[in-house]
């Protein structure tokens, strides 16, 4: 095994052994899916977004996921308050900037969260990352219209500027903190056809951050695990309707050694 494959196996094992509590302030569309993905991988999910309990919940949790998929003004305030609390407690935070660049609410919210909290990892598609970088990405749709390659150079620059780690997901994933850059192969073509796979990847990164203090390795190994699980599910899936249950089964049944043997992570 290489250092990276050993890290993958170790992180999968630690998540299952430690069962970290992952606090999700996430969108209504994916709450059930995200919770099931976290449970299947061995973590413990909690969905809590009431303004008068988020800080207390952050204190109990091992990591925090902020997902702006179904945003309101009140939720922006709640996310910033939760993020500030997690930052003060030095707990890892994952930001999923769903649809950033499509509306001013989403764009301004994502930037406010970034500048008022200490984000460990931003996980988005290439178009979202380009929008965060203040580039005119030309999209008014929520799905990606750019490839990971399109955003790679800008991601390295943006990661340095923000002092955070960026994880861009697509047919090939890329993780960078501006100094180290890793690419991850894997997944299945059916993944974009199931609501919540991207959001679930963000949550899975949060689970790995709870057991691995290095954001680059935590994000890359989480995405490698998710990619192997996607490939496993795709073998038997007849379409999107059967894919998600099989993905949950794969996350639950894959052994750490299997994941390590099949993961494909490269250093750029």
Automatic annotation (TrEMBL):
Annotated residues for binding of substrate: 47, 196
Pathway listed: Cofactor biosynthesis; thiamine diphosphate biosynthesis; 4-methyl-5-(2-phosphoethyl)-thiazole from 5-(2-hydroxyethyl)-4-methylthiazole: step 1/1
Assigned EC number: 2.7.1.50
GO biological process, one term: thiamine biosynthetic process
Annotated GO MF terms: ATP binding; hydroxyethylthiazole kinase activity; magnesium ion binding
Keywords linked to the UniProt accession: ATP-binding, Kinase, Magnesium, Metal-binding, Nucleotide-binding, Thiamine biosynthesis, Transferase
Entry binding sites for ATP: 123, 169
Cofactor: Mg(2+)
InterPro entries assigned: Hyethyz_kinase (IPR000417), Ribokinase-like (IPR029056)
Enzymatic reactions: 5-(2-hydroxyethyl)-4-methylthiazole + ATP = 4-methyl-5-(2-phosphooxyethyl)-thiazole + ADP + H(+)
Function: Catalyzes the phosphorylation of the hydroxyl group of 4-methyl-5-beta-hydroxyethylthiazole (THZ).
Family listed: Belongs to the Thz kinase family.
The protein's name: Hydroxyethylthiazole kinase
Gene name tied to this protein: thiM
